[in-house]
């Protein structure tokens, strides 16, 4: 059993490694999903809701669209890379591209049309996850180095 002095370091290392692995796994899954989406068929759709949501601490957005793939489906995943943006201006510009009433091309998974998107090329959200994974790996390496050099 580790000594009580090592317990905080073990928790810190575990958290840093867990963050790195979590970001990398999420980024890898989204990358794979984007590659599969490049082969999805498309149908015309219509934006039914497009807005930026301003909270007291967080800004978010909501884009919903309707399309027919066997039956009418309402989608709310405009991009497969995730909801993260580097800054609010990027998010607002993305929302502005899809005003309510606009006709759009909707890409959908023929095996499960509920998996769909209107932008299958935007990778900014995935890049942010990879950056998070790299930062977590660097921080973990620094923590290990400090623990070894200054025990």
Task: List strands and helices in order, with pairings.
Blueprint: H1 7-37, E1 42-54, E2 59-68, E3 72-75, H2 88-96, E4 103-109, E5 112-117, H3 124-149
Antiparallel strand pairs: 1-2, 1-4, 2-3, 4-5
Helix pairs in contact: 1-3
Structure in words:
The protein has 151 residues and is α+β, with helices and mostly antiparallel strands. It folds into 2 domains: 1-38 and 121-151; 40-119, OB fold (Dihydrolipoamide Acetyltransferase, E2P) (Beta Barrel), CATH 2.40.50. Helix content is 44%, strand content 26%. It is built from 3 helices and 5 strands; from the N terminus they run αβββαββα. The protein has helices at residues 7-37, 88-96, 124-149; strands at 42-54, 59-68, 72-75, 103-109, 112-117. Strands 3-2-1-4-5 form a 5-stranded antiparallel beta sheet. Helix 1 (7-37) runs antiparallel to helix 3. The chain is elongated, with a radius of gyration of 20 Å.
């Amino acid at each position: 059993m580790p000594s009580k002095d090592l317990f905080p370091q073990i928790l810190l290392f575990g958290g840093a490694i867990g963050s790195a692995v979590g970001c990398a796994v999420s980024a890898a899954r989204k990358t794979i999903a984007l590659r599969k989406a490049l082969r999805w068929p498309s149908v015309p759709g219509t934006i039914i809701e497009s807005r930026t949501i301003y909270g007291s601490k967080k800004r978010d957005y909501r884009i919903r669209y309707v399309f027919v793939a066997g039956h009418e489906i309402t989608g709310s995943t405009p991009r497969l890379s995730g909801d993260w943006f580097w800054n609010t201006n990027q998010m607002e510009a993305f929302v502005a591209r899809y005003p309510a009433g606009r006709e759009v091309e909707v890409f959908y998974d023929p095996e499960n049309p509920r998996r769909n998107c209107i932008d299958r090329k935007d990778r900014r959200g995935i890049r942010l996850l990879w950056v998070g994974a790299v930062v977590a790996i660097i921080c973990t390496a620094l923590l290990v180095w400090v623990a070894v050099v200054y025990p």
